[in-house]
## 1
Amino acid sequence: MSPSLARNAVALSVGLALMAPGAASANPLDAFGFGPRGVAMGGAVTATARDVSATYYNPAGLALGDALLLEVGYARLEPALTLNGVEQDVDASAGLQGGLVLPGVIAGHRVGVGLGVHLPDRRVTRLRALRQSKPRFELFDNRPQRLSITSGLGLEVAPGLSLGAALTYLSGTEGALRVDGVVHASDPERTRLFSGMDVNLKAVRYPSFGLQWCPSRALCLGVSERERFELALDLDVDVQGRIVSGADDTVLVEQGRFFLNSRNADLFSPRQVTLAVAWTDTDFTLEADLTWLQWSAFPGSTATVVVELDLGDLDFAVPVPDPPGPARYQDIWVPRLGAERRVFGRAGEDSLWLRGGAFFEPSPAPEQRGLSNSLDADKWGASVGIAVECIDPWGLAPRPVELAVSGLWIGLVERSHLKASPADGVGDVVSGGAWAGGSAHVQLAF
């Protein structure tokens, strides 16, 4: 392929655009929850999760189930996020969710192995590079578009006391744009460049740990910890070749080179620790969770750029962006409350469950008064759910089949970002909006 200079300039500009920052935030499970029970109870299930969702909320619960579980479902949440009253182009979060739990006994101790999967229905992963000054919702921009796979193990070390650990795998991105050929300084139409792009998906994994302790039949306590992780967007632009001029192609530079490396946090999740307490029996559960998130460790999504230029004797320089400043995010505490009640039937029979939950997540982001427009706001969440347990009429599952539906609403408190400089290119920004959606799941127990 031997395209014109204009066409190659487009290809090169794509590479240069990757110098800009990309939005960074946690994965879709951190943003919206996992599984119909977890979502319907506002995420307050750390002390009582026993199903597939325990792979995410607390792997210690995998040891306390008494049946092999298979679960499959679909979740979708639609955004309506606005800046200065104008709705923004933020992707919906949608995809398949499910997994399995395998219980067992080893040396007289109950154990459980679980696998949980969130598979987006549009793309496995997404990267999007934006200028630092471009307003965007930092905690939601790349969040919905991530493949997430979690495997966990739980072990009951004493009656009522279990420990667990899990690994979550997420997809990251690295790539390079390479351009070779001859640049004609005096006649651009005679420029001949050959380009190629190499982009790879790579897996990044991070661990989580958990404990569940039920000192009595009614009281259960839970503790979970998820480690910080960061997916780096690591991109190279490497341009090499001769520079010539004139009708006789006089060589100005025999072998010139321009190299650029851009690295930034394409996806970031803070370290988080959850403490939970639940009052539960066979027909009712009330749980309260409190989660600490270490957002102060957020490195920011602005790219760190390294540029090398070698044009021999030609006096030419490329301006390098200033190093990014600190994001100055703050640690936050997130309270959650959830409840469920069986309103019809009994255990092992046809039953009907009602569920509900609520949470408040303060924003870790400071007001954006300078060049950066990494926007976020306090968030209120409310959720509801219904689950029907029915005897399998076909006799495929020896235990009741669960059909569960959940709904979730997350509202962003309207927030004003007043710029320190009246000459700011973007100006004052008012952010707000909401997310709304739900999920439907089927669970088989054997």
## 2
Amino acid sequence: MRPILLALLLSPSLSSAESPAPPDPDDTAYPAIERYVQVLETVRREHYDFDKVAYDRLVNHSLEGMLSSLDPFSMFIHPEMAAGMKDGKIDPHVASLGLSLGVRDDGPYLAGIDTHGPAASAGLLAGSAVLKINGAEVKDVPWQELLERLNRPPGETTKLLLKSVAAPKPQEISLTHITVETRSLAESKLLESDKTIGYLRLAQFGDSCAKEMEAALDDLEDQGMKSLIFDLRGNPGGNLDQTVRILGLFLPPSTAVVTTKGRGGVIGEPLKTPDRQRRKREYPITVLIDRMSASASELTSGALQDLNRAKIIGETSYGKGSVQKILPMGGGTALRLTFAHYYTPADRSPHGVGITPDVPVTLTEEDRACFELFRHRESLKPEEAKKLAAWKDPVMAKALGEE
């Protein structure tokens, strides 16, 4: 084994000082590292394409595979990508296509695929190389420009020429952009059928959504609201601080609502609702969730469920309760690494299992399609509006006791 490579792979700078190593027997480390170096040197010696066997390239690509094997949210950030992500200057996520675009030494690639979205529906695989966007070559095109090419209005189509390890030849895939809600508080009203029931739909946990929600609740209460339907369907999550503040609108001051646990146990103090509450809100609450309610949505519905503050209706939620951080590494690279899970007051983590509703509702694909129309009903085509008008929302019906 080459001493320089062995020293590099065993360097303390590549290990975590914050938590103990995995409980592997000590004598398994050296054979595993020796096997890695043996494969590395065999590839360098035997592979026909000399341009692809530089040490930096081989090691970085192997680290990419290592991180992607851990969980859907951990990833190795190549130097070409890390430079653009520094200080958050570039957001690699293209929400309207449900994918994240990365860049490495051989050009752009699909760094991540959302579980739900056009990319997932088309069966795209993370790690696939992007060769062309709408027929145009992408090699050596700046990352920011590539992202601008991919971000298009809803309803438009983007064609990607992709090369994945699962296919012998490049394939051209057409993806239709979907509407992405940019407002946090998407809707606030009293129901026409019963003016004592309020309805709030939160599309995401944005940076000011707690203040928006509090103002909306004040208004609905002043109009005579006696109970609330809080719709978190399709909400992917967002700002954790805003999540805790929103829970503080419905729970007593200084209530512990979120705990973070890593490999070594609890990290820091539990997150608590604000120590002051301007209005007491003791009316009944019903929370609506579906399989796309994730992260902050799950912490919110889970906490209200654990503390017997709300009834949860709908589908089991997505199951995203993990926490990631960016760790700078050598050679201008970085890691986006899952290091902990969030837990609700009853010591439940939604990660991998979701939040199970108190009242489950089975949805058809037709129901899901109509709910998407409902979310974007301001911009529907005539035939879509007609389809939505004929639909009865089974989750809302259950919440209103109509089924």
